[in-house]
Amino acid sequence: MKNFSSKEIRFSGSSLKSCMGFIDLVDSTKNTITMDNLECIRKYYSKFINLTSEIIKNHNGKVIKNIGDCLLFYFPKTTTNNNDAFRQAIECGFCLLDRRYTINQELSSQNLPLFNYRITMDYGVLDMALVGDYSQIDLFGSTINLCSKINSSFLSTPNNIIIVDNLYKILKSFSNILDIYNFINIGEYKITEINRYPVYNIKRKPFFELEERNQTNNKKSINNKQLDNFDNNFDKQKNKKQKIILIDDEDILFTYKIFFENYDYDITAFTDPNLALNYIRDLYNFEDLLVILDIRMKNLNGIQLHHQLKAIDPTIKIIFITALDIVDEFSTIIPEISKEYIMRKPVDKKIFINTVKKLMR
Fold this sequence. Notes:
Layout: E1 9-25, H1 28-32, H2 38-58, E2 62-67, E3 70-75, H3 83-109, E4 117-131, E5 136-140, H4 142-151, E6 161-164, H5 165-171, H6 175-180, E7 181-190, E8 196-204, H7 224-238, E9 243-247, H8 250-259, E10 266-270, H9 273-281, E11 289-294, H10 302-312, E12 317-322, H11 327-333, E13 342-344, H12 349-359
Parallel strand pairs: 4-6, 9-10, 9-11, 11-12, 12-13
Antiparallel strand pairs: 1-3, 1-4, 2-3, 4-5, 6-8, 7-8
Helix pairs in contact: 2-3, 9-10
């Protein structure tokens, strides 16, 4: 490894205010440690670095450096109060998530582990240093340190875009951005009792999911045809089936499906809570989502899953099913859960369906 001399790094004394972010590959060390040859490891990391660098560049961003499986990047055009530049920075995050599906198909065909990302973004003062022959920029300072810490914390759930309070305040000042995105408060990152930083999960509003994906800074006026397409997509979203996700043993899932056979819900079932969690993370609309889960499950119990679901989106509706007589105790552990949403096995079909209907109104 090359050792830099003191002449090769110079703190410039300059700084700028800009939107910046981190993206890192979740569980990459665990994934690569099982690979038998160096070529597979190189291919795995190069796909990640090349894909993310290309997308960031295409959204007028600049990758500053990679640290292992993590990239630091920023968006120079956000140094001015330009809402299009901020919009493009956010869409960069969504493009990174969207492209993950196609690249994962390729990785799967090559028997390589799939990509899962943590993406965290913020806005603030970025101090500058010059490196190498003084022609390359490096960034450092408190904004980057905070964003890095949050990106590696429990608040940064994989395959979501997490933004810190400073960036949230900038984004919510633009009315067109508020029209397109939902901001969900998922908690606070606490350094001290005084220094607390609210953290948000950003989601596209459902009816902008298709229409707004490929917008550029040179967006043209919406013509009548585009308005018709927008209205059609809005109607489709409005009439979309309410979604229920079932997580339990296979025989119990069969019973639930029979309960729902005469109801027009979109039902998805899992026996593995981790698979269910990954599936839910990839959804973009949680307004009509109900998760029905057992409390006792392997690898991830109902309480742990509840906390992770609420971190993804606090509006997700949950019904707990248990064979244990622990309703009162469970209500004490998670007081925000009403007792009527904690049901004993074997469940009564009428009570079960009425409870679901009540939550899905």
